[in-house]
Amino acid sequence: MTATRPGAAADSKAAGTLISAGLSELFTRPQFSIPQDEKQQLLLSEFERMTSQHRIACEPYRKIMDALGAPQSGYTSLEALPYLPVSLFKTHRLSSVPEDQVFKVMTSSGTTGQAVSQVILDRTTADLQSKALAAVMARVLGNQRHPMVIIDTPNVVKDRKRFSARGAGVLGMLPFGRRHFYALNDEMELDLPGLEAFLARHAEEPILLFGFTFMVWQYFLRALTSAGAFPNLSNGTLIHSGGWKALAEEAVGNVEFKSALKEATGLGRVHNFYGMVEQVGSVFLEGDDNFLYPPNFAEVIIRDPQTWEPAPDGTPGVVEVLSVLPRSYPGHVLLTEDLGVVHGTGDPTSGWAGKRLQILGRVPRSELRGCSDTHASDRAGRR
């Protein structure tokens, strides 16, 4: 399903490069600042435009839309937009740009033998993703680059052309730090002497730490406590994501995770985020109230798994994510394999506007896909 109709190349180029005034406003205004009603109106016109452009440029997408009977235009709400199941990217190469414009192919996490998603990026989409991530992280990191501890191995970012979701996550966060220190070796062992030397060099500076949730817990925090080492990270900020399934089996939730880090290291500024390779850059960031918030250029809808209608606030369902970033592939409206619930909206005056999302876990019997969940599964299989 990679063929495009004759003449689609020019159309697909337009799909990848057209940046509207509405999109510019979503980036220009501080993230998490736009009141919900205004945000939805800005997003609706952008998503309708993108749906039309991808329909022209990506023949498989057009065939799916035609089969669904999706209208060409006239959508009155975000909930009315047609969505694709995220699993479709495991079985089909969906692209809205010609092959000579493909800049990078992203792949999702997958345990041995699993199919992985392929996400086609042109330079425009890759640049938008970088710009989006920077805008989101500025909300908690500011505009200064701090000495950075990556709780991973340096080999995770080796292949710069074809990235895994884990490698993409690490690479995407590198620009927010400086003097990078990789805390783990290839055997996933903590380099404690190296960590202590790094912290000694930057004892008077704010520190940025990044890692995937399970790896932070298993290979960083547990290694520290096993060694009886309790470094002072009270001047640090940890950004982490993924891997909650593995921790849930140990009865470790968000509160326990933060509490253990605080007790062992003094680390108090901890922000989880929710995202996926199929919409890289559109990360939902944890606010001060422990809920996840979509940035200006993204949205979330919870759907009833029986009727597929939007679920009311407070009612769990399947998570649908929307993002204006995917210009080179039709991944702007996706139904995920995650369960979640929306608890109303935040207050713009608090700095956290938008829907307040809680992720509850995976849809039963769905594949194990999280970056660090996958890593944990692979290592268990090898053992």
Describe the structure in your own words.
The chain is an alpha/beta fold. It contains twelve helices and 15 strands. Strands 6-4-7-8-9-10-11 form a seven-stranded mixed β-sheet, sandwiched between helices. Strands 1, 12, 13, 14 and 15 form a five-stranded mixed β-sheet that branches. Helix 3 crosses helix 4 and helix 9 runs parallel beside helix 11.
H/E element order: HHHHEHEEHEEHEHEHEHHEEEEEEEH
Supply Rg: 21 Å
Structural class: alpha/beta
Report helical residue fraction: 25-40%
Q: Can you summarize the main beta sheet? A: 7 strands, mixed
Shape: globular
Major β-sheet strand ordering = 6-4-7-8-9-10-11
**Number of helical runs?**
12
Question: What are the main properties of this structure?
Answer:
five-stranded mixed beta sheet, disordered N terminus, globular, alpha/beta, seven-stranded mixed beta sheet, 383 residues
Explain briefly what this protein structure is.
The protein is about 35% helix and about 20% strand. It has about 375 residues and is an alpha/beta fold.
Write the layout of secondary structure elements.
Blueprint: H1 8-17, H2 21-28, H3 36-57, H4 59-68, E1 84-85, H5 88-91, E2 104-107, E3 118-121, H6 123-141, E4 146-150, E5 162-163, H7 165-173, E6 177-182, H8 192-201, E7 207-212, H9 213-226, E8 236-241, H10 244-248, H11 254-265, E9 269-274, E10 284-286, E11 292-293, E12 298-303, E13 317-323, E14 333-346, E15 354-362, H12 371-382
Parallel strand pairs: 1-14, 2-5, 4-6, 4-7, 7-8, 8-9
Antiparallel strand pairs: 2-3, 9-10, 10-11, 12-13, 13-14, 14-15
Helix pairs in contact: 1-3, 3-4, 9-11
